[in-house]
Amino acid sequence: MIDNVVNIIEGLKNGVNPEDLIANADPLGYFPEIKNMKIVDADDFTGLYSTVLIDTPVGPYFSKFLEENIGEGSESKTLQEIHNIFKELKPEQIRTSLKKMWLESFYYFIQKECNSTTKEVMGDLLMHEADYKTIQVIYNSIGNKDLTSMVSRTTTRKRLCPSLGYLYPDCERELVNVTTLDNLKAAVVGISTYSELLKEAPDPIKKEEYNPNAKSLDDLMYEEEVKKYSLAFEGQNHYAVFYTYLKLKEQEIRNITWYAELVARKLPKNHPGWKKIIVPFRWEAGK
Hints:
The chain is an all-alpha fold. It has helices at residues 2-13, 18-23, 45-51, 59-70, 79-88, 91-113, 116-141, 150-160, 172-176, 181-187, 192-200, 217-231, 240-265.
């Protein structure tokens, strides 16, 4: 739902036909109100929020998102301020912030409503997922010219990084002040899985050394996540298998999409790109 809403908002900002946007929405994130997401012109975001977003299933996350960016209290959300937020912020910033809130609320729902085995398995999965999101946010912001001051780094990263995970809160102070890849490695040194993962990650600042055929940080994270999701099927009497089944299917879709891209580029079969797929359960056989 979050992806659909953010994609539609961005599409509307760029003048894309609303019917085309809705037709391309992810079916898993469809909800009836999505058909009413329209704007009169490219700047009419206030009407979009007040008439549609506030009443959608993701409305609470948008309200919290606006409070964090404008100030607490509904009286502070003036139409002009709402307009400025949607117009100025990049879609990925909105998406990351909203998904952070969703991940936190999902974790606490699991801990409150589910049986002990589900709490254990899903709790571990979501804690790791939160850590990966935190590492990704910090990694992607290294070298960002808009985050040169300590205040801007701290504010932005705290807003985007989940208040959850094995890195939180012990490593939070070190993470928000990271300015280099070495700093990031030092901040997670206490958890071997993350340290090993970052050893293989390319330096985001040294773009001249970038190798398009090498594994990106996203690739490395997907590999680790697939291992965690596959292990969930080893247990019994828990609901985590439904979540992990969906996550593994998403990885299969990424694999197919990547293959389609290689075919479209007409790359030879010996190209390294053909090996950049992650097959669920394959790692267990030592392959």
